[in-house]
Input
Amino acid sequence: MTGMKTSDFIFDNHTLIDLQLISDGKNNLCVFDLFNNTHTYGGNLSLLYMFKRPFCDDKLINQRIGLLKEIEINGLGFEIEKEAIDFIEFYLSLSKPPVRFSCFIALANKIDQMIKPTNDYYVIQRGVIFIIELVNSLYKFASSNIDQKNRSDLLRDLSEQIIDLITYEDLEEILTERTITKLTIFETQKLDHFFRFLYKDKINALLSIVYQLDVFNSIVLTKKKYNFVYPEISENQNIQIEGLHHPLIVALVKNNLILDEDQNVCFFTGANMAGKSTFMKAFGIAVYLAHLGFPVPVAMMKLPVFNGLLATINLSDNQSLGYSHFYAEVKRLKFIAENLATSSKMVIIIDELFRGTNNYDSHESTLAVVKAFSQTNDNLFLVSSHLPDVARELADIPNVTLKCFISNIENEDFVYSYKIKDGISDDRYGMRILKKEKIIELIGQE
Output
C-alpha cells in the first residue's frame, strides 16, 4: 500500500489455506470473501494484495486501525462510482494511441466524425469526462482532509498524494466548479493526449488511491456487518481474548482465552468433533487479521506483535513424492523448525500432531516435540492431540497450559459444548460411534 512499508511477517500459503483465510480452489467460502465488498475490480486486487501483507510493526498496525476507525465514524467522504471507474479503465486501455494535440488534426478529426462517427471517439470523449469528474472529486476529498487536523496520519498521507498528483502543470487546469457534460473535439483531443500519454502514470496513480479507498470502505462494511472488533496491541506478551469465534461458522460458539507471558505452550485434548480444530483455526484467523490491522471476530482482543504465523491443520499424503502421511507431517514440522531457528516471536498452530502413525510412536514423538517447543520461550505454540496421556506428562512443565473440550453422551447421542476448559479430556468415543452406526453388524451381513 502506498505510504506504508511491507513487513517481514512470516507465513506461507499452506497456513492461509489451512486457516481458511484464502480460497482452497474448491469454491469454499473463505475469510477473504467476508472482507471483499469492493466496488471495483482494482479494489478487489488491492484487497488481495493487502490481505497477503500483514505487519509485524505495532505502529503500522495501529495506523491502519486508526484509519478504519475514522472511516467507520465519519464515513469515507468519497463516493466510488463503479460504472465511471470501469469506463475509465476501459478508456485507458484503448489500443488506439492518443494523437498529439494539433488544431489541424483536431479539425480533421471533427470533419471525420461528422461524416462517419466512430465508437472510439465516443469512448475517448466519455473517458475524458469521467476522468475530469474523478479528478475534481478526489481534489475536493483531499482538500477537506488536509484542512482538518484530526484526520488520521494515513488519510492525510493519501490526501497529500492526491494533491501532489493533481496540482501538476496541465492537470490542474481541469479543476473546475462547473459540471462537465460535453467537450469540444479540440478539448477532447487535448485532454486525451494528457490522460493517455503525458500523464497516464499520474492518472493510474490516482486510480490506485481510489482502489485503496474502496478497500478501506469494504473492510469497514465487513466490520459493521459481522460485529467484528478492532484488536488492541499490547506492550507486554500477555494474550487476552473474549468472545472468539470462527467467522465462517453460522452456529456461533464463543470462547475466551487468557495466556500469560510465561505460558507459551497451549496443549489441547478432546474427542473428535469436540471443537479443537475449529478453535485453533479461529485463533489463527484472529491473530492474522490483527496483524493486518483488520477487525477480528472477537468481543475483545489484546495481543503483542508477532513476527509470523505457521499452521498445520490439514495435511495429506503426497503420493507424487512418495510421502506417507507421517512423513508429510515430519517434513512440515521440519519446515516449521527451520523457521523457528531463524526467527523469534512466532505463532505455531498444529492440530493433531503425528496422527499419521501408531499410538506408541505418536505418543513418544508428540511428547518430544512439545517439550522442545516449551524450551523456546519467545514463541507461542498451540498444539492439539488425541492422546491425553501426553498431556499428563506435560502437566509439570511450568510454561505449558492444558486446555480441553469436553463432550458427553445423552440418550445415546453425542453432545458437544464446543467450550474451552482447563484440564485434560479423556473422552474416547471411537467404539461408541461404531456401535451407534452399527458398522460391525453391517459388515457381518451376508
